[in-house]
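It is worth pausing here to work through a concrete case rather than discussing structure prediction in the abstract. The textbook approach is simple: state the sequence, then state the predicted structure, then interpret. We follow exactly that order.
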Amino acid sequence: MPAEVTTLAIDVGATRTRLALVHGGRVAHRVESPTSILVAPSGLGNGLAEAARNLLARANAVNGAMAAIGVSLAAAVDDRGDVVQERDFGIPAGGTLRVALATAFEVPVAVNNDANLAALAEHRHGAARGHDSAAVITLGSNIGLGLIVSGEVYRGANGMAGEAGLLLVPAVSTSERGNSRRRVDAGRFGSAPSAAPEGYAWIEELVGGRALAAAASMRRGASVQETTESGGAHARILTREAFADPALRPFAERAVEGWALIIATVSALLDVEIVVLTGSLAADAAHLLNPLRRRVAELVANPPEVVIGSLGPDAELIGADLFARAALGRAANHYARAGLSAQSTGERR
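Step two, the predicted structure:
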């Protein structure tokens, strides 16, 4: 599909959602909103459609209409583009989002997991380029993992391959369960609310960005920068400046230990050539890369190369664009084989 095609790329995260028009592989116009605002009052599908209309209205004189939509979700997605499991921050199960966007704009809509799309982008254009196997770990509010196996994104039997944030860590419950969560003590990883099965916590509940910020909230120092994300202020506790604060340093050390455990587990199972760290948390923690590499080398006999992604926070958007253009190409091939035009099927091109 020609690179000059304009697509709408959407990245829905646990705390924030970004929409961008991508033209020729470059982000041309963008908007960002708290995910919670898009979810209320009429659901995420309608919220995304309205945000997309507003973005198109602002950029229409320059870019014109988009040809396809690519959606990156912080959720497991099957090969139809349906969400496998509802997420508690507003992503509904099933094909609701895909159908809502396709109905609103009458263009092909391609939906995939955010880490899968980050992996696609980093493998095609970024730090994993030229590698036959790679693991791309997205470090944000939560933790995701996109896998490249034999040069292709590996999705698994149900689209749930790479859910690294759901790796189980032994933990002891210290409170009764309420609102589906109870407080647990996970030893070196600290104490946190968890919705994992009894006796465990999910690792993203301990060393994901949201968890680390919550754990440090009682010990914030003057050196900690604040960033507005999803309508609230979250402590940036892994920056070089924050690491200099003795009260906050243990949280960086906890992050290194947890991330090294994830990398060691992936390495033991898949023996990947390279691990790419991407996302807002990875950018803040770039100065911790050497300690992380050393810890991985202590845990793994043949450690992979560990690097920071080269596409920055736009990896998911670039991946969504690539996936949308691939879907547009598949649709065109389908119509050609059937002797039909896109217009005859009701899709605007």
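Step three, interpretation. Residues 264 and 300 are 6 Å apart (CA to CA). The chain has two domains: 6-116+313-345, 129-167+203-310.
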